[in-house]
Design goal:
DUF7847; GYF_2; 4-stranded antiparallel sheet; mainly alpha; transmembrane helix
Length: 319
């Protein structure tokens, strides 16, 4: 039987039979456009969804194989991830060069078009963050001993649980802000309530952050350049968890593959966004009201651009 070679998330996998590969496609283990396939007789690797030999329907399983009480194979989160951009076709990782200026210009247009809801959502985010900081400060003052009050640099073990809870809440809020940004870039409705919609993924996000910072520290210890590369290539792991409902390790691998061949472009993007934030600070902080959403949307649009190419920046009507 002829073997088929294929990739998954940009990584080459061991060869399988045609039936096995078709089954993986049917079970949605593989993406029909992002993952590639090749077998003897083909000139080049092609997206699995474009290979006619793999599109024939599989024979239905016998009645004995059906279990009406079995749990569904696909979670609602996975279905949402697939359908959110169903009118776009994913491109192979590294197949396009990120257009930094196009992302920033599109972010600028989105900010001007939707400034009202962006301002309300941002105001809710920063208001909750400030309130959380106030509560932490009050608890810290209450839990401090007289000796600790005299030494502001002393460690207070009683504050550790409070700080952990506060950090988790901030992660959840930041994830909600990312979801709102993804929705806005996709032409979907946005509301401040979306800030609270991603707390169910806290464990995945916390696990991903721990792994990310471990790798970042190792990269910085070795040399500054490896640390920068690690920071850039893994930078979209959190967005992947929110967008695709991935686990921590899967999201880190996805981010690494997604940013292939675009590390320099991403560094250029972030440098430009840093200059924009600096300009907002110089403009008596008032400019930050506009600079922050442009920066946030630029990063999200770059993520979509790496997934779908230039069509990701096209105008999309609200849904």
């Amino acid at each position: 039987m002829q073997d088929w070679h294929y990739t998954k998330n940009g990584d080459k996998q061991p060869p399988v039979s045609e039936t096995e590969l078709r089954q993986k496609l049917a079970d949605r283990e593989l993406h029909p456009q992002q993952d590639l396939g090749w077998t003897a007789g083909m000139d080049n690797w092609q997206p699995l969804g474009d290979i006619s030999a793999l599109q024939a329907p599989l024979s239905a399983p016998g009645a004995s194989a059906l279990n009406p009480y079995a749990p569904p194979m696909t979670s609602p989160g996975e279905l949402l991830a697939r359908r959110e951009n169903e009118d776009l076709v994913e491109i192979p990782p590294g197949s396009v060069q990120l257009d930094v200026m196009a992302c920033v210009k599109r972010a600028w247009r989105l900010t001007t078009q939707h400034f009202g809801i962006i301002f309300l959502t941002g105001l809710a985010y920063f208001g909750i963050s400030l309130g959380l900081g106030f509560v932490e400060g009050m608890l810290g003052a209450f839990l401090m001993t007289p000796e600790q009050r005299s030494n502001p640099f002393s460690f207070n073990p009683a504050m550790l649980p409070v700080q952990i809870v506060g950090a988790l809440i901030r992660i959840g809020l930041a994830a909600g802000l990312t979801r709102a940004s993804l929705n806005l870039c996709a032409g979907r409705d946005v509301s401040p309530s979306q800030l609270f919609g991603e707390f169910g993924k806290l464990l995945k996000m916390a696990g991903g952050m721990i792994l990310f910072y471990i790798m970042l520290v190792i990269g910085l210890v070795l040399l500054i350049v490896p640390g920068i590369i690690v920071g850039v290539r893994f930078s979209y792991f959190m967005t992947a968890i929110i967008d695709r409902n991935m686990g921590p390790i899967e999201a880190l691998k996805y981010s690494w593959n997604l940013t292939r061949g675009n590390a320099v472009n991403l560094i250029g993007l972030w440098f430009m966004l840093m200059m924009m934030m600096l300009a907002g600070v110089i403009a008596l902080l008032v400019g930050l009201v506009f600079a922050i959403p442009v920066v946030t949307l630029s990063v999200t649009l770059a993520y979509r651009y790496l997934q779908y190419g230039p069509p990701a920046l096209e105008e999309r009507s609200a849904r």
